[in-house]
């Protein structure tokens, strides 16, 4: 949520309106419990979303509620590195919108908070991604050029802007113990003059370049694969052991629609499913029962099939007159024969 800057009078009016619309709280706090929010005079944050935890000290009896309040977004920072002032009432409005009543959260501290943005190196993202790719290549035991790592979310990793040059700032990423591809959390370390300054957990999208089988044309669900449907290509994939052999995938059926150029693996396929023929006689059908014993033949004109089946299969049939159940063989549509010994 992004809140726009308003005058003090406008904020006061908005707070009254929000309180009237929201009404009672839906936060789940009970009497006697509560959350205290003590605003700071000045805060410095990295580019991105500014949350309550950045602006204030949040405390209370319920850790879950404290964490929930702390994660509430209050404003967004632009890229101009300018300073912003946040009125206390803007924070109150955000709390009301989150479903908290004024009686549930105690807000103290200054009436205005000055928010400024950390100076971040223009090469920070590139350096971090390069370090992450090197760490993943080491963990996966593959060449560095075959691994690509991209930040999936901004990192709260500031650089000192007071006389610190990039020459004495280094970034490294610790290789994971159990490496995987896709969305991966890695430990990023910022060192100054060889000394550890800060450690954060970063979320990365990690992909491996390898020869994989891809669809040479759009494949609809149910397509039975032939060699014409597939080709191989060097691709960045988040599947460690992607299929690279076309023959292993042939004569199988596609589970889902696959666009042209997208990797095809055994997980996308299933054995060919043949359409089962409609039964000649279905359960609960009315059938003619032909009973034979030697040269004697008795015909029961109306009986009920209790099972479905094809010609030549044995099914159970109920004589509607006697209610007796016998087993007979399907000889044609609507006719079952019972051979008595």
How would you summarize what this structure contains?
This protein has helices at about 10-20, 50-55, 65-70, 90-95, 125-140; strands spanning about 35-40, 40-45, 50, 55-60, 75, 85, 105-110, 110-115, 145-150, 170-175, 180-190, 195-215, 230-235, 255, 270, 285-295, 295-305, 315-320, 325-330, 335-340. The protein has four domains: about 10-115, Sandwich (eubacterium ventriosum atcc fold), CATH 2.60.480.10; about 125-205, no CATH class; about 210-270, Type Iii Antifreeze Protein Isoform Hplc 12, CATH 3.90.1210.10; about 285-340, SH3 type barrels.
Largest sheet: 5 strands, antiparallel
| Derived structural class | alpha+beta
CATH topology of the largest domain, which one? eubacterium ventriosum atcc fold
Number of discrete domains: 4
Number of helices: 5
> Could you tell me the radius of gyration in angstroms?
35 Å
The chain-level mean pLDDT equals 79
Order of helices and strands: HEEEHEHEEHEEHEEEEEEEEEEEE
Number of distinct beta strands: 20
User: So what's the CATH class of the largest domain?
Assistant: Mainly Beta
List keywords for this structure.
five-stranded antiparallel beta sheet, disordered N terminus, five-stranded mixed barrel, Type Iii Antifreeze Protein Isoform Hplc 12, 16% helix, 4 domains, single chain, alpha+beta, 20 strands, 341 residues, eubacterium ventriosum atcc fold, 5 helices
Can you walk through the features of this model?
This protein is of the alpha+beta class and 341 residues long. The protein has 4 domains: 8-117, Sandwich (eubacterium ventriosum atcc fold), CATH 2.60.480.10; 124-204, no CATH class; 209-270, Type Iii Antifreeze Protein Isoform Hplc 12 (Alpha-Beta Complex); 286-339, SH3 type barrels (Roll). The chain is 16% helix and 37% strand. The strands form 6 sheets. Strands 9, 10, 11, 12 and 13 form a 5-stranded antiparallel sheet that branches. A 5-stranded mixed β-barrel has the order 16-17-18-19-20. It has a 3-stranded mixed sheet with strand order 4-1-7. The protein is elongated.
């Amino acid at each position: 949520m992004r809140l726009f800057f308003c005058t003090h009078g406008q904020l006061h009016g908005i707070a009254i309106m929000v309180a009237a619309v929201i009404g009672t709280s839906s936060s789940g706090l009970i009497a006697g419990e509560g959350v205290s929010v003590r605003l700071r005079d000045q805060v410095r944050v990295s580019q991105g979303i500014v949350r309550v935890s950045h602006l204030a000290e949040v405390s209370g009896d319920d850790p879950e509620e404290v964490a929930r309040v702390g994660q509430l977004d209050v404003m967004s920072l632009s890229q101009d590195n300018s300073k912003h002032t946040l009125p206390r009432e803007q924070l109150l409005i955000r709390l009301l919108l989150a479903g908290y009543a004024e009686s549930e959260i105690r807000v103290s501290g200054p009436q205005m908070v000055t928010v400024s943005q950390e100076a971040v190196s223009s090469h920070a993202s590139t350096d971090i991604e390069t370090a992450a790719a090197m760490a993943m290549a080491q963990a996966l035991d593959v060449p560095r050029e075959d691994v690509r790592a991209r930040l999936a979310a901004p990192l709260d990793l500031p650089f000192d802007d007071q006389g610190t040059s990039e020459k004495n700032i280094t970034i490294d990423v610790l290789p994971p113990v159990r490496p995987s591809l896709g969305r991966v959390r890695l430990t990023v370390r910022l060192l100054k003059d060889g000394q550890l300054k800060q450690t954060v957990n970063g979320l990365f999208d990690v992909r491996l370049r390898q020869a994989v089988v891809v669809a040479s044309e759009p494949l609809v669900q149910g397509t039975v694969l032939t060699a014409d449907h597939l080709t191989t290509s060097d691709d960045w994939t988040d599947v460690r052991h992607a299929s690279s052999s076309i023959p292993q995938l042939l004569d199988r059926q596609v589970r889902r629609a696959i666009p042209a150029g997208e990797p095809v693996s055994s997980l996308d396929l299933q054995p060919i499913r043949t359409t089962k023929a409609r039964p000649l006689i279905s359960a609960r059908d009315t059938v003619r029962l032909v009973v034979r014993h030697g040269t004697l033949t008795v015909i029961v004109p109306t009986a009920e099939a209790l099972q479905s089946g094809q010609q030549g299969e044995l099914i159970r049939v109920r004589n509607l007159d006697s209610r007796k159940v016998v087993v007979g063989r399907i000889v044609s549509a609507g006719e079952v024969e019972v051979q008595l010994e």
